[in-house]
Structure to design on (475 residues):
């Protein structure tokens, strides 16, 4: 059974059950009250009070027996009048209102109010125009019982009207329940339709509901969830496309040195170089090409480790000034051969800290390669600076190139981002992303600014031995 039907059924059962209990209680109480009143005989005891009023009427009569009989009839009494032994009223002696022997017996009793055999009688001697009459009024209990039964019937009629009223209320409750259930189920139906559309891949149509604030907030939350899913889906698609482009780019970049390696080795095997010097030159060119291939593969391997979270830091205490001087000396000649001049501006006296020197070297190499590829300036000069800013040790790598368009500057550390998307074969879009990952893994921050070229600033906190041990345990 659907929720709509369950809610409607429960609401109607509660309404009908409540109305039925109310009707039963009222009907039972009234009927029991009438039955109890009749069975207890209280109505008989009330006759005694009425008898006093009847006796007063008898004693004040002026002899107009028809009028008196009419008044007594309203009190459920029958009138009997004798003058001596002669029946005066009713006029037809063949139809006396009561048994004559009973009347004769009463005439011998004391005058007033009498009760005999469960019946009540009122009699008196009255004198009218010099004549003395024996006047008796006999209460008609059967008539009174019929009046009570008539009253019970009236109460039964009222109860039937009450029943019809309750039935009308139930019908109104049925209509209201349908309205209420439909109003409650409207947002649920809209949400169900939205879920079906979402499951089918349609994320463009939100749930349009305006009504109760609580249900409206639920629909709003669903729309926000749908928008989040849509955004994440678009990001995943963009990510997959960018990863495909990266693999395509690296494959393209690998093809050039691989072709060179194959070409020069085949030339050596075919005996093209005629002297040992030419053979050595051919082999050196092939060897240098394998270095380019190795750098590309290392970058791909490093990106894979970053993505899978398998690149922990192994910190060791190091003096950054000494390390940067050593790095510059080791790489100066190779970069000068490629058209880059490395300058150093180091602030002395900066205390030693804890760094993963292998990862730090990857950061610097990525930044130098990035300048070499995108600076677009000759002669190319890259300046490596070391300075202390408060509790931070800052390494800056600046070139004298063309810089980055301001609108693209905030995005250059994003995964797969390339400033010149039209040149999709140039660069993989992961070099600066890896730089950001390694710097932040050290607890630092990285930012890029245009300052007569592109400057990458990396701020590292001063780490203690405890920081190093915690990082090693996490790794």
């Amino acid at each position: 059974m659907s929720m709509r039907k369950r809610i409607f059924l429960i609401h109607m059962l509660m309404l009908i059950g409540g109305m039925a209990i109310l009707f039963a209680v009222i009907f039972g109480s009234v009927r029991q009250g009438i039955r109890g009143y009749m069975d207890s005989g209280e109505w008989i005891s009330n006759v005694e009070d009425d008898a006093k009023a009847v006796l007063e009427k008898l004693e004040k009569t002026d002899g107009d027996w028809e009028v008196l009989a009419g008044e007594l009839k309203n009190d459920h009494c029958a009138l009997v009048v004798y003058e001596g032994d002669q029946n005066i009223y009713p006029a037809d002696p063949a139809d006396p209102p009561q048994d004559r022997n009973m009347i004769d017996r009463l005439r011998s009793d004391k005058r007033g109010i009498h009760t005999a055999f469960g019946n009540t009688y009122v009699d008196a001697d009255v004198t009218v125009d010099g004549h003395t009459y024996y006047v008796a009024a006999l209460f008609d209990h059967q008539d009174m019982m019929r009046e009570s039964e008539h009253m019970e019937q009236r109460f039964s009629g009222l109860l039937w009207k009450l029943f019809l009223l309750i039935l009308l209320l139930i019908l109104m409750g049925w209509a209201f329940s349908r309205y209420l259930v439909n109003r409650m189920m409207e947002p649920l139906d809209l949400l169900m339709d939205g879920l079906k559309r979402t499951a089918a891949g349609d994320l463009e149509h939100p749930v349009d509901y305006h009504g109760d604030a609580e249900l409206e907030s639920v629909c709003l939350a669903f729309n926000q969830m749908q928008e989040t899913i849509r955004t994440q889906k678009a990001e995943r698609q963009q990510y997959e496309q960018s990863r495909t482009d990266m693999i395509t780019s690296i494959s393209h970049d690998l093809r050039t040195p691989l072709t060179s390696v194959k070409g020069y080795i085949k030339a050596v095997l075919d005996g093209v170089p005629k002297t040992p010097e030419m053979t050595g030159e051919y082999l050196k060119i092939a060897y240098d090409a394998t270095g380019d291939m190795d750098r590309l593969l290392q970058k791909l391997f490093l990106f894979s480790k970053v993505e899978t979270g398998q690149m922990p830091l192994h910190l060791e205490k190091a003096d950054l000034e000494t390390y940067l001087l050593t790095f510059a000396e080791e790489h100066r000649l190779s970069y000068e051969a490629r058209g880059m001049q490395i300058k150093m501006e180091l602030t002395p006296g900066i205390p030693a800290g804890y760094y993963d020197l292998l990862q730090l070297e990857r950061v610097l190499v990525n930044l130098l390669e990035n300048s070499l590829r995108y600076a677009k300036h000759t002669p190319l000069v890259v300046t490596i600076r070391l300075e202390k800013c408060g509790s931070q040790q800052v390494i800056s790598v600046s070139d004298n190139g063309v810089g980055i368009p301001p609108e693209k500057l905030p995005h250059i550390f994003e995964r797969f981002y390339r400033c010149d998307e039209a040149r999709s074969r140039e660069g993989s879009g992961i070099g600066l992303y890896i730089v950001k990952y390694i710097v932040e893994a050290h607890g630092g921050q990285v930012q890029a600014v245009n300052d007569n070229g592109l400057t990458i600033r990396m701020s590292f906190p001063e780490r203690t031995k405890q920081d190093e041990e915690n990082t090693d345990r996490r790794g």
Observations:
- The radius of gyration is 57 Å.
- Confidence is low (pLDDT under 50) at residues 421-426.
- The longest helix spans residues 141-199.
- The CA atoms of residues 354 and 465 lie 8 Å apart.
